[in-house]
Design goal:
mainly alpha; 4 helices; 80% helix
Length: 85
């Protein structure tokens, strides 16, 4: 009888862990999108202000592109959630 009680608690714990993992998966894409937006903003560093005056400086630097790609790659859980409804 005790084994069944422990097993039931273990299943409940596993279900809770799975739902927490699902929430973390859903948080990845918006987090990377926000990080991409924030990496485009000047940080107030005088060296960045000098570099942004240059004509060939792009508003999307390498980090912004990386964060945009990471956001695109992590949209799968959102697509699964949308398609299941």
């Amino acid at each position: 009888m005790t084994t069944q009680i422990i097993r039931a608690d273990g299943n409940r714990l596993a279900a809770t862990a799975r739902s927490a993992a699902d929430l973390v998966c859903l948080a990845a894409a918006p987090t990377f999108a926000v990080m991409a937006l924030l990496s485009c903003l000047p940080a107030g560093n005088p060296h960045e202000m000098i570099c942004s005056v240059m004509r060939h400086a792009a508003p999307l630097n390498g980090m912004a592109w990386m964060y945009l790609l990471m956001s695109a790659f992590h949209t799968t859980p959102w697509l699964k959630l949308i398609s299941s409804r």
